[in-house]
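Thanks for the sequence, V.! I ran DUF4158 domain-containing protein right away. Repeating your input here for the record:
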Amino acid sequence: MAAPYDPPTEPRDLARHCMLSPKDLASVTRRRGDHSRLGYALMLIYLRHPGRPLSAGEVPPARS
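Predicted structure:
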């Protein structure tokens, strides 16, 4: 059983949490500079799922 704050592992959940909508993309494009746009997009994705971002080199847990 996954803990409540584990990142999603099911393809449908990954798509729901990790894809940006047209409204999200419009908001991202209003940021200045490539670094700001990338950072903003990542924060939108991280904020959709409670918990924490993955550490460098960390992968989501395997499906059970």
